[in-house]
Amino acid sequence: MILTVVAAIFVFGLLVLVHELGHFITAKMTGMRVDEFAIGFGPKLISTKRGETVYSIRAVPLGGFNDIAGMDPTNDEAGDRGFWRKPVLSRMIVILAGSAMNFILPVILFFGIFFFSGVSSPSTDPIIGTVIEGRAADQAGLMAGDRIIKIDGAEVTTWEDFSKKIQAVTEEKPIALTYERDGKISEVSITPTYDSTSKRFLIGVNSLIVKNDVGLFESMKLAVERTIEIIAFMLTALVGIFSNPSSAELAGPIGIAQMAGKFAADGFVPLLNFAALLSLNLGIINLLPVPALDGGHFVTLALEAVRGKPLGPKALIYAQRVGVALLLLLMLFATKNDIVRVFFS
User: Fold this and answer.
1) Final residue of a domain: which of 211, 229, 263?
2) How many structural domains comprise the chain?
3) Which of 258, 257, 252, 260 is nearest to 336 (CA)?
4) CA–CA separation, 73 and 320 (whole Å)
5) How many CB atoms within 10 Å of residue 47?
6) Taking the CA of residue 121 as centre, how many other CA atoms within 13 Å lie in the half-sphere pointing to its CB?
7) Residue 78 and residue 49: Cα distance in Å, rounded?
8) CB neighbours of residue 132 within 10 Å
């Protein structure tokens, strides 16, 4: 439980810090006055004032904000340093900077993982890496590190060769598997079982995973490629959610915290991988053209650029209310999923 809480605070805190830092830095660079930079919501736990800005950490670590002067178009107290007094391009940069930082963070995290931990890849040798508890291989006594030599008398030289022979099984009947362990050759009878998820027969083993060290530039290249691959996958999944909303399996703060705890239990590197995935997810979601999200603010600014004048205060207020209502409904739906998943599954 403690590990889950610590992991969740770390992940939420890192993502919010990076996101809000993007808004903060670009607001300062474009000459806007930032009255407060806050991590979290609710009562202040720690706060200090440096120059014109109050920096604070608040009690609920599920978000954060930048109190940029003049965000309310009816309040012109900040004069030329107010948000709405700045050119449209400057405001667009500030709005998009949060999500931009959420796309940059995974590149940095993946780079660090690849450079310091190496790149993991399946071994081509027919050596068992892990045995799934309770499955056929486990019941037959196979163990991690066993080298597969033959299946039904046919020689096995690579993991792909072994995998193809198992995939060729079309009925639940025993096969003779010859393996080597600590220099000793043994044979065991094992019966593959049908897996409805993968729609094929399996014995419940995974290949050996090997780690290869990579250099500085290769690590950066791999980090960028991994980030692009994940973004493409997430966009495809997002399209699927909109085309078939009933199939969406959304997770709220409870579900994300639970997942953070599970990844943290596997080590710091899996937790960083999870943080990178969540950061990309946050960046993409924030760019959706929904009022109250950064994407919604950007659309408003784009309309202002086309019209040559901003939307009226009433239109902005109504749009914000609709956006907040939609986000609350989405949060309630995700929280319901969390409760069902945690307590009733």
Assistant:
1) 211
2) 2
3) 252
4) 13
5) 12
6) 9
7) 18
8) 13
Q: From CA 11, how far away is CA 195, in angstroms rounded?
A: 35
| Dihedral sign, Cα of residue 138, residue 143, residue 148, residue 154 | negative
Summarised one tens digit per residue, pLDDT across range 272-302 is: 999 999 999 889 988 988 877 888 889 889 9
Phi, psi angle pair for 40, to nearest 5°: 95, 175
The residue to which tokens 């409904």 are assigned: 329
* End-to-end Cα, the chain, rounded Å: 19
Per-residue pLDDT reduced to its tens digit, 68-78: 998 877 777 88
Tell me: do 67 and 131 sit in the same domain. Answer: no
Range of the domain at 196: 122-211
From CA 313, how far away is CA 140, in angstroms rounded? 72
Task: Give the whole-angstrom CA distance, residue 63 versus residue 286.
Answer: 12
pTM: 0.79
145: confidence class by pLDDT, cuts 50, 70, 90: very high
User: Are the beta carbons of 198 and 169 closer than 8 angstroms?
Assistant: no
Q: Which residues are catalytic?
A: 20
Q: Do the beta carbons of residue 79 and residue 33 sit within 8 Å?
A: no
pLDDT at 129: 93
The CATH number of the domain holding residue 158 is 2.30.42.10
Q: Is 146 exposed, middle or buried (0-12, 13-18, 19+ CB in 10 A)?
A: buried
- For tokens 């400057």, the residue is 90
Cα-based torsion angle of the residue sequence 94, 100, 102, 105 in order, rounded to the nearest 10 degrees: -120
